[in-house]
Structure prediction request, 164 residues.
Amino acid sequence: MGNETRQGEAAPARLWEAIETRRIGLLGMPRSGLHAQPMIARVERRRKQLWFIARSDTDLVRSIGEAGACMFVVQDADFLASVSGALSVVHDPKRLARYWTAEVAAWVAGGLDDPRLVLLRMDCVDAEVWIAELGMTKFTWESAWTGGLRKIIQADGWPDVTFH
Prediction:
């Protein structure tokens, strides 16, 4: 497992880079009783926000209410992260057009003009990150047999980013 100390903005930067690279993860609202759903994330680092395109007639969007507590989980070959925060529905046609891609279009039959399209803004609060420099199999083995070795990293401006 990675045991590297990351100071200042290095810890959140590694997290943002991984989400920007992978983009697809699972978005869920633990209190809703719904399963997490695959979503494409767009990152706004300066604001510590993730953005998602959704339809207003989905169970996920209907369950949000006023800034619902949520979690976004993203995984790659050597990286696993869980980000928590608050989810809100936003109506912003310009931002929606900016985030529109062929990937999103494949999931939305009505296209960009579908009146049910909304943006979901996740205001990120904290994150847990696991880095397995030799792969996830070795990471799982080490976690199971060593009690989950931990290395907590202090990150300015985002005090709860934890790298394992």
In short: The radius of gyration is 17 Å. Helices lie at 10-22, 59-62, 93-99, 102-105, 136-146. Residues 1-7, 147-156 have pLDDT under 50 and may be disordered. The beta strands are 24-28, 37-40, 42-44, 49-55, 68-76, 79-90, 117-131, 161-163.
